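Sat 14:20. Reprocessing the chain from the morning session after the first attempt stalled halfway. Input below, unchanged.
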Amino acid sequence: MLDDDERTVLEETERELARDDPGLVRRMRGGRDGRGRRVTVAAVTVVLVAGLLWLGLPGQALLVVMLGLAVLLALGWQPSRRLEAIFRRIDEGPAAR
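Finished this time. Tokens:
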């Protein structure tokens, strides 16, 4: 258990963190900003597409891919940021890692 002085210091630290890095506070309170949902949607989409292709239904598989991408974008997925990070690492080369 924390005594009153320690609790006060902890509360002040939390307030300073919230002021300095609101993104960190959001991630700590709400998980990973929807990342878990996006991973779940991507995994379900891959499984459905594989099953539809296995059944010989490529048209339906394409529709599921498009629907999955639409849901991912609605959940806040930003592929351009991810690609920028990948290209930046490629440009830096293995020496920078």
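Residues 1-31 form one domain.
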